[in-house]
Design a protein that fits this description.
- The structure is a single chain.
- It is built from 2 helices and 5 strands.
- By secondary structure, the chain is an alpha+beta fold.
- The protein has a 5-stranded antiparallel β-sheet with strand order 1-2-3-4-5, with helices on one face.
Length: 108
């Protein structure tokens, strides 16, 4: 298992999918379901809220990461994310990014 996988699994993310090839190649997707203590808002479609971490690579480029929330709120679908993160940024700023995404979604 690679270093990012171990890091995300220790943060309660679960491995969700592997390998997709369009429009860029991504190699892994991780998902973490938030609890009611962490967020007051949930997706109107499924009554839950997830944070996803997508690991991907543009051809010839180094690994990059996107941390995102995709959910329905007030009858609109929202995508909130921080993208093109380096491995170092993922490790050092994921808590800040998660908290910011949750605050933004709660504010909708």
């Amino acid at each position: 298992m690679s270093k990012p996988n171990e890091f995300l699994l220790k943060r309660s993310y679960r491995y969700y999918a592997k390998s997709f090839d369009h429009p860029y190649a991504w190699s892994a997707l991780y998902q973490q379901q938030l609890t009611e203590l962490e967020t007051k808002a949930v997706c109107e479609t499924n009554g839950k809220l997830f944070i996803h971490v997508e690991e991907y690579r543009f051809k010839g480029d180094s690994l990059k990461y996107t941390v995102q929330i995709i959910a329905e709120r007030n009858d609109l679908w929202w995508t909130l994310n921080a993208y093109s993160l380096s491995e170092t940024e993922l490790y050092t700023r994921i808590e800040e990014i998660e908290n910011t995404l949750i605050k933004l979604f709660n504010a909708i």
